[in-house]
Amino acid sequence: MRLKFTKMHGAGNDFVVLDGVRQQISLTTEQLRLLADRHFGVGCDQILLVEKAHDASADFRYRIFNADGGEVEQCGNGARCFVRFVHDQKLTNKAEIVVETHNGLIRPRLEADGRVVVNMGAPVFDAARIPFSGGTIEVMQPLVVADQTLMVSIVSMGNPHAVQVVDDVERAAVEVLGPLIEHHASFPKRVNAGFMQIMDRQHIRLRVYERGSGETLSCGTGACAAVVSGIRRGLLDSPVSVATHGGNLSIAWGGEETPVLMTGPAISVFSGEINL
Ligand SMILES: N[C@@H](CCC[C@H](N)C(=O)O)C(=O)O
């Protein structure tokens, strides 16, 4: 099968984006892994598949696959690239798009300056919806990992996150603790692990060890989860600038049931074709 793709990134979190509106696309787990492979394929953290909406109130359906081939519910940086992609490919000219995801509708908007603002919906703290099997979700939760008790904040931004505050994000044991948190028995669907350093009440540094992809240069939902957790811990005030290894994101949240708004870049790198 010959497949057209576009390589994109949002603050260094990179994607292979596929037009499933004009191409008939059905990929096996092995084909998804090959696309994501940085040596034998195109290389990316996630594969994004744009399809026709099933829901009559939506403009498109947006599917997300991690580098390990697993389909997941949400991807924040990907949502911004999705908007840039459907505009560049002339699949729509609407500035605000209603997008159907595995986890309900999101509403990204393309601004005149090219940045994309995404209404990510309200954060979820219900253990059953994370899912988290370790009891009721508190603002901070003890999680025993490799004989250490970590204090994590657990939140779903459509996908599951466990965020901890660290003194120095560059020295945090992301590569060691990340996979152990991802596969912790209390998270039946695994979890994304965030490591946040508070710089001041409106600035953080963040690294995220992503479920199914490993550490990425940035994670949009991870940034939302970190800011929500920091505000709930009383350490941050909205809006918060999130510095990642791949660039900056701005996250705003009014608290409680209000939606989280994420702003950041969405860049097309190149387009090509691959034989799978
Ligand atoms: N990079 C993403 C998140 C992608 C999905 C995540 N790895 C998961 O498994 O939930 C983002 O920008 O949000």
From TrEMBL:
<comment type="pathway">
    <text>Amino-acid biosynthesis; L-lysine biosynthesis via DAP pathway; DL-2,6-diaminopimelate from LL-2,6-diaminopimelate: step 1/1.</text>
</comment>
<feature type="binding site">
    <location>
        <position position="13"/>
    </location>
    <ligand>
        <name>substrate</name>
    </ligand>
</feature>
<feature type="active site" description="Proton acceptor">
    <location>
        <position position="219"/>
    </location>
</feature>
<feature type="binding site">
    <location>
        <position position="46"/>
    </location>
    <ligand>
        <name>substrate</name>
    </ligand>
</feature>
<feature type="active site" description="Proton donor">
    <location>
        <position position="75"/>
    </location>
</feature>
<dbReference type="GO" id="GO:0009089">
    <property type="term" value="P:lysine biosynthetic process via diaminopimelate"/>
</dbReference>
<dbReference type="GO" id="GO:0005829">
    <property type="term" value="C:cytosol"/>
</dbReference>
<keyword id="KW-0963">Cytoplasm</keyword>
<keyword id="KW-0457">Lysine biosynthesis</keyword>
<dbReference type="InterPro" id="IPR001653">
    <property type="entry name" value="DAP_epimerase_DapF"/>
</dbReference>
<keyword id="KW-0413">Isomerase</keyword>
<keyword id="KW-0028">Amino-acid biosynthesis</keyword>
<feature type="binding site">
    <location>
        <position position="66"/>
    </location>
    <ligand>
        <name>substrate</name>
    </ligand>
</feature>
<dbReference type="GO" id="GO:0008837">
    <property type="term" value="F:diaminopimelate epimerase activity"/>
</dbReference>
<feature type="active site">
    <location>
        <position position="75"/>
    </location>
</feature>
<feature type="binding site">
    <location>
        <position position="192"/>
    </location>
    <ligand>
        <name>substrate</name>
    </ligand>
</feature>
<feature type="binding site">
    <location>
        <position position="159"/>
    </location>
    <ligand>
        <name>substrate</name>
    </ligand>
</feature>
<feature type="binding site">
    <location>
        <begin position="220"/>
        <end position="221"/>
    </location>
    <ligand>
        <name>substrate</name>
    </ligand>
</feature>
<protein>
    <recommendedName>
        <fullName>Diaminopimelate epimerase</fullName>
        <ecNumber>5.1.1.7</ecNumber>
    </recommendedName>
</protein>
<comment type="function">
    <text>Catalyzes the stereoinversion of LL-2,6-diaminopimelate (L,L-DAP) to meso-diaminopimelate (meso-DAP), a precursor of L-lysine and an essential component of the bacterial peptidoglycan.</text>
</comment>
<feature type="site" description="Could be important to modulate the pK values of the two catalytic cysteine residues">
    <location>
        <position position="161"/>
    </location>
</feature>
<comment type="similarity">
    <text>Belongs to the diaminopimelate epimerase family.</text>
</comment>
<feature type="binding site">
    <location>
        <begin position="76"/>
        <end position="77"/>
    </location>
    <ligand>
        <name>substrate</name>
    </ligand>
</feature>
<dbReference type="InterPro" id="IPR018510">
    <property type="entry name" value="DAP_epimerase_AS"/>
</dbReference>
<comment type="subunit">
    <text>Homodimer.</text>
</comment>
<feature type="site" description="Could be important to modulate the pK values of the two catalytic cysteine residues">
    <location>
        <position position="210"/>
    </location>
</feature>
<dbReference type="Pfam" id="PF01678">
    <property type="entry name" value="DAP_epimerase"/>
</dbReference>
<feature type="binding site">
    <location>
        <begin position="210"/>
        <end position="211"/>
    </location>
    <ligand>
        <name>substrate</name>
    </ligand>
</feature>
